[in-house]
Amino acid sequence: MIEISDLSMHYQLGATRIDVLRSVNLSVAAGERVAITGPSGSGKTSLLLLLSGLERPGSGRVAIDGTGLGGMDADALADLRRDRIGIVFQSFHLLPSLSALDNVALPLQMANRPDAHERAAALLQRVGLGARQGHYPSQLSGGEQQRVAIARALVHRPRLLLADEPTGNLDDHTGEAIRDLLFELNLEAGTTLVLVTHDPDFAARCDRVLRLHDGHLTEVKNSRAADAIPV
C-alpha cells in the first residue's frame, strides 16, 4: 500500500538548513496498522503530509497503492486523496458553516456522488451521531467533532487512512472511545491505518510501531501489538 524510498525533506530558515527526514525508507502492506511516534518537532506530521501529497519531498519517492506521487500535479493529487486517502487531523478541520451531515458528505459531493448524503448519514449513525447530523460544529463537543472528522475521512471508503494525533485534544475517556472507534472501523473496512501519536498505549495496539528521531525512521519492538486487538 505504501512504498517510500530514500525520502528526504528539509526546511530553510535563513542560512540554517533543518533536515526533517533523512533518507527514510518504509513499506506498509495493505490493511496494516502502523503507529509513528517520536518527540515533538521530529517531522511526524510532515511525513503524513508527504504521504498524502500535501507536501513535496526534497528527494526520494513516495508511492501509494502502486501510484508514484512524484510526477503528479496538484489536480491529480487532489483526485488521489478524494478516491483513495482519508485524513484525520488533530484539530478536526470541520467547516463551521456546514452541519455534521454536510461536513461528512462533502468529499462525496466533490466527487459528484448522488448518494452523498445517504452514505454520510449512515456513517454518522455508525459513529454514534445519527441524532446529531443536523448540528453544526459549534454545537458539538470535542469528541463529537472528532467522530464527525473520522466519518468524513472514511465516507469515500479510502484504502489508506492517515490520522495525525487524532486524540491529542481530547480527554482520556473521549480519547479512548475514539481509539476504539478507529480500530473497529479499520477492522471492518480493511483500511490501511497510519497514525501519529505520543500515546504509547495507542501505538501498542498497532501491528508495528515506528519512531522518528533526528530525521531517521526506525522500527520499535512492539510485543503488545499481537495481543492488543484481534486480527
Describe the structure in your own words.
There is one protein chain. This protein is an alpha/beta fold and 231 residues long. It has a single domain (2-223), classed as P-loop containing nucleotide triphosphate hydrolases (Rossmann fold, 3-Layer(aba) Sandwich), CATH 3.40.50.300. The protein is 35% helix and 27% strand. The chain contains 8 helices and 10 strands. The chain has helices at residues 44-52, 74-84, 100-110, 116-126, 142-154, 172-189, 200-204, 225-228, and strands at residues 2-13, 16-28, 33-37, 59-64, 67-68, 85-88, 160-164, 192-196, 208-213, 216-220. α3 crosses α4 (116-126), α3 packs parallel to α5 and α5 runs parallel beside α6. The chain is globular, with a radius of gyration of 17 Å.
What is the count of DSSP helices, taking H or I runs of 4+ residues? Answer: 8
Q: Termini distance?
A: 18 Å
CATH topology: Rossmann fold
Structural class: alpha/beta
What's the SSE pattern? Answer: EEEHEEHEHHHEHEHEEH
* Count of beta strands: 10
**Strand line-up across the major sheet:** 6-7-8-3-9-10
Largest sheet: 6 strands, mixed
CATH architecture: 3-Layer(aba) Sandwich
Helix content: 25-40%
List low-pLDDT spans.
225-231
Rg is 17 Å
Give the overall pLDDT as a whole number.
89
- Total domains: 1
For the record, what is the CATH homologous superfamily label?
P-loop containing nucleotide triphosphate hydrolases
